[in-house]
Amino acid sequence: MVLAILAVGAGTAVAQPAPGAPAGQDPTPFVGVAPFGPPKVAPVNGSTVGVAQPIIIDFPGLVDNSVAAETAIHVSSIPPVPGKFYWMTPTQLRWRPLDFWPAHTTVTVDAGGAVSSFQTGDSLIATADDTTHQLTITRNGTVEKTIPMSMGMAAGGHQTPNGTYYVQEKMPSVVMDSSTYGVPVDSTYGYKTTVELAVRFDDSGDFVHSAPWSVADQGKRDVSHGCINISPANAQWFYDNFGAGDPIVVKNSSGGTYSRHDGSNDWQL
């Protein structure tokens, strides 16, 4: 057997579909002995998530055969949509549709005989355009709200990278401390502040959050250290409406494309 020690950033692999199924999906029950120990699957059974949420399968250890592991994971959805597998770490396999899930899709995951299902909610998408400094919210294809914002400033190289992200967690309050990534609090670009209504969209510490100190800049210029700053009232609306898996798309930033293989670059793979 070949040990599947996969390099971070390894390429994707698309499972062979069952007859009549779209690429990457297999609606048939898994039969046989799974080639891995009991996995942990997210989203959890019975949950409702946003349309950018990937399926995340954590194995209890390294698998002997990565192809066999993929073959033992049967993903199906109503309506059916094509998708692909990709390894985020040597013990974590993910699957996502090639495009966002349709709104109100039911998804079933059969992970070597362990079956769970989840569904998507409305297609709620936030698009942050650094040209207009506006955060545009669409729900099921219709613009629902346009929010003035301020993203990462060019000074110090803090531009918010372009990319398609999704909500990973929400916190009513969080302390943001530049020293956690090596920038002293008392340096030119250092900071330590408590931020309210924080919606995290990557693993590098970027959030959509309330920023009363930058309201005068929102809709006009970029002044943040990478986060998307919005007013307290707009932050409350965003916090109340956006949840796990809802997409946040950043475009027209001078910060390049998000390239860190850190668990939040699914839609760049």
From TrEMBL:
One GO CC term, this protein: extracellular region
User: Mind listing the UniProt keywords for this protein, alphabetically?
Assistant: Acyltransferase, Cell membrane, Cell shape, Cell wall biogenesis/degradation, Lipoprotein, Membrane, Palmitate, Peptidoglycan synthesis, Signal, Transferase
One MF annotation (Gene Ontology) recorded for this entry: peptidoglycan L,D-transpeptidase activity
Q: Which InterPro entries match?
A: Big_10, LD-transpeptidase, LD_TPept_cat_dom, Transpep_catalytic_dom
The superkingdom of the source organism is Bacteria
Every copy of the L,D-TPase catalytic domain together lies at 124-251
Indicate what this protein is called per its UniProt record: Putative L,D-transpeptidase LppS
